[in-house]
Amino acid sequence: MRADRLVATLLLMQSRGRVTAAEVAEELEVSVATARRDLEALSAAGIPVYPQPGRGGGWSLVGGARTDLSGLSSTEAQALFLLVGPAAAVSGEAKAALRKLVRALPQTFRADAEAAADATMIDSTRWGENTRRRPEMVDLLQAAVVRRKKVQLTYSNNARQQSERLVDPWGLVDKDDIWYLIAGTEKGQRTFRVDRIVTAAQTDEPAERPDDFTLAAAWEEVVGEMEQRRSRTWATVLIDGRYLPILNDHFGRHCHSEGRSDDGREQVRIAAPTPLDIARNLAGWGTMVEVLDPPTVQAELARIGTELAGRYVTET
């Protein structure tokens, strides 16, 4: 949502010539503090936006009011359309907005901007899977975020226990094809998996959001907490160095090489939520991987091996 808001702020400045943070806040339905941060972000990004202090001041683009986006350089316009282009495939409204944005550019920039918009596409469907559609629930929640309205949720937790929640929707995140809602509750900030929301209804009650809230920072905090949970159990293993990239692909950021051991194999630290999670990932490697510690992972591997031997014993 921040990228969309920055573009909207820029277009507003182009149409009015000079704006105040309060005017941007009213037009885009955000707080004054958020509007001021967005204006400062545009300036920090190299777009010729500058403040004018004093009576009758505000924020302006170099050169004053314009009817096009000539405040952008050619490279800045291309960067903007590389960002916006893939999103245009989502809906007809996005495509229409992109066409209008192209027409707002100087003639000399349009060809490169259109090429940039078409240079990238995003196909989130994995090989062999049917085309995925964005859940309708996401559209409902997104509308509530934009309109700043509270939402009444029926939510099902891990144990499939349902509860009613009245939340302030702050933002939505798509992570690896799973949507998450970050919202304010009576107990503070919470994260809800959208696929576990049974029902949702937008209310007429205004939603509250902290002035210093940013979706990127909030999600970074969520990811940090989640990764801590995903790395509660660490194990030390030995593996032939040529297979290290495969092991790294399995465990990602929870795979750290500690150099070569005396026998020439790579000594690696890996992590997962539980000893069983590590054992399940390593069981298929057989003797290609040797677990040095902890004993809990060794025990889980031995148990899995015993079960498989008992199930698939062959007669000679």
From TrEMBL:
Signal peptide: none
Pfam families registered for this protein in UniProt: HTH_11, WCX, WYL
UniProtKB keywords: Transcription, Transcription regulation
Keyword Protein biosynthesis: no
Residue stretches making up the HTH deoR-type domain: 2-67
Superkingdom, taxonomy of origin: Bacteria
Keyword field contains rRNA-binding: no
Descriptive protein name: Helix-turn-helix transcriptional regulator
Organism annotation: Antrihabitans spumae
